[in-house]
Amino acid sequence: MAVESCLLNWGIKRVFTVTVDNASSNNVAIAYLKKKIVGWGFSILNCKYLHMRCIAHIINLVVVDGLKETNVSVKRVGEAVRYIRQSPARLQKFKSCCEMEGIESKSSLCLDVYIRWNSTYLMLNVAQKFENAFDRYATIDPCFKFDLQSSDGLPDSLDWENVRRLVDFLGHFYDLTLRISRSRYVTSNIFFNEISSVDCLLQEWQGSNDIELACMGDRMKVKFDKYWGDPDKMNKIVYIAVVVDPRYKLKFMEFALSTVHGKEKGMELAKKIKLTVYELFDEYKKTYQVEHERGSNVAGNTSENNESEGAKKKSQLNLGDQFLKHKIETREANSKFDLDCYLNEGIKVVDEKEEFDILKWWQLNSGRFPILSIMIRDILAMSISTVASESAFSTGGRVLDPFRSSLTSKIIEALICAQDWLRKSHCCKSIEEQITDLERLEEDRSLKYLISILVNIPIKVGKLVIPIDFIVLEMEEDVQILIIFGRPFLATTRAIIDVKNGWLTLKVGEKEVEFNLFRAIKHKLNTDECLRVDIIDKLVEEEFYKRYPEDPLKACIVHSNTIDYDNKEIVAYAQSLGALAHLYP
Questions:
Q1: I need a surface site. Which of 141, 174, 339, 505 has the fewest CB within 10 A?
Q2: Which of 390, 422, 447 is the last residue of a domain?
Q3: Within a domain: 71
Q4: CB distance 159 to 123 below 8 Å
Q5: Is 540 in contact with 533 (CB distance < 8 Å)?
Q6: Same domain, residue pair 116 and 225
Q7: Separation of alpha carbons 240 and 243, rounded Å
Q8: Is the per-residue pLDDT at 118 higher than 70?
Q9: pLDDT (tens digit per residue) in 524-565
Q10: Which long-range contacts (CB under 8 A, 24 or more apart) does 458-463 make?
Q11: Are residues 191 and 278 in the same domain?
Q12: How far is the CA of 359 from the CAs of 14, 193, 205, 302, 531, in angstroms?
């Protein structure tokens, strides 16, 4: 209902495809939406190819199934990284180990998040570069070895070998997810190539001599086949999008399908796809032929008005023009053969170093294939994924709260437009790889590390004593940072804030304390308080000068036991006073 309402409010009645994730509830929603769109009278083939599955979600499911049984090597490396990242002192010591081992990598150790498999890949990809540094660190920090042996143990050479294989394994899917990210506005012609490459890769892993890799490939292949194993259950637009690519066309489909499914089944599938292409083109021809002819007639009438009467009579006597006009009126114009002309032309050969822009190619050739170009415009604009790469990596799911689910169509439109403007750049942004920013934060001490949590510390506020929990962070001291009590403190004290009159009322039991906020704002911040630890150093220094004055003679008179003092002048005065003591007993 929500999608239908948005489409009606936006005035959109022609819908070619709707891309959704793998949730079973989407099947019901698509069936309902299909019925409504057909009722509007603007459907293509009665919305036969309306439902499109999001490739990013399916790839994520395939990877998650492969990583269900995470091996102990990943856990060991993860614990080693986590130990070093817990303290700036450990991190600095680890950097020294890297310098001693001659490791010049600019990458920095990063932690993984259990619900984002790409973070596991990034962590392992960086950590495997510092294998020798981890070994050296274990020799200079005895707690490192002791701490890790209490869990899964230290990573050894076999663990690092397993990590390198897993990095190579996950790297394929990491790069694939970035390529198909919705934020890059990928055209649908790459869909088939990507899923075919994944199919071939999984088949290769299934036949691997590495038992663990083969088992992982088997688990992933089962999930892959659930969505893309049967070509008859897939949306045929996936194949048509390849056919309309001038670099491939039908010949490539015959070759690709024969390679993946065998020659006999592949050729049979290729024939079905060809029939589907012609079926879809005929539908577009029925829909847009009249509009195209009307536009051509308007252009012709405009040019005829600018011609002389003699030229009009001449054109009427031109049998060739009359023949073409007759063909257009009987809907047998050259546009009927748009698809045949396109398929019979040779494929476009593109240099490997050259980046082919399929949208630009069809824009330049739309005059040659007027009806076909309209069909291809809709096919290439079809979304192959519904989420950006940073969301596709997550295995935790996306929560749709009541607020987001009740947004109006105008707000949704504003959010979609704002997202497009923010993502207007063609560069793919990867937040996880901004390692340089992480190192900069560490250098200027912007990162805070948790040391411990103090529970039920009594804090006196006026005549009240309130138990408060504190989080102790390892960070640089700053006298300007105040202690801010948050909502738990306000809830414990049953705080009442009178903004108009400027009163803060705290109540514990029967006792109550009031503070005048306006008066407190006028007072300057006083940092010289006895609560600060550094006041002790100041008191010690003052007491020292009282006990040990700067004048050497005065020091000897005040303190008779300074004969062993380091100051030679004081020692000399002390010796002289000692000698005078014998003369004047």
A1: 505
A2: 447
A3: yes
A4: no
A5: no
A6: no
A7: 5
A8: yes
A9: 555 554 444 555 556 666 666 666 556 666 666 655 544 555
A10: 461/493, 461/506, 461/513, 462/506, 462/513, 462/515, 463/511, 463/513
A11: yes
A12: 21, 18, 36, 30, 69
Per-residue pLDDT, 474: 67
**Domain check: are 80 and 155 in the same one?**
yes
- Are both 74 and 134 inside the same structural domain? yes
Which of 173, 165, 159 has the alpha carbon at shortest distance from 214? 165
**Mean pLDDT throughout 376-399?**
67
Residue 355 within a domain: yes
Half-sphere exposure (CA, 13 Å, Cβ side) for 344? 5
Full residue range of the structural domain in which residue 508 is found = 448-522
- Residue 337 sits in the same domain as residue 266: yes
For the stretch 215-274, pLDDT in tens is 888 888 898 888 888 887 788 888 899 999 999 988 888 888 888 888 888 899 889 999
Do 409 and 488 fall into the same domain? no
> Do residues 116 and 237 both lie within one domain?
no
The rounded distance, in Å, linking the Cα atoms of 331 and 281 is: 14
Distance between CA atoms of residues 392 and 386, nearest Å: 9
385 is written with which tokens? 């994924």
Angle at 169 (CA atoms; ends 168, 172), nearest 5 degrees: 85
Phi, psi (deg, nearest 5) at residue 53: -85, 140
Residue 529 lies in a domain: no
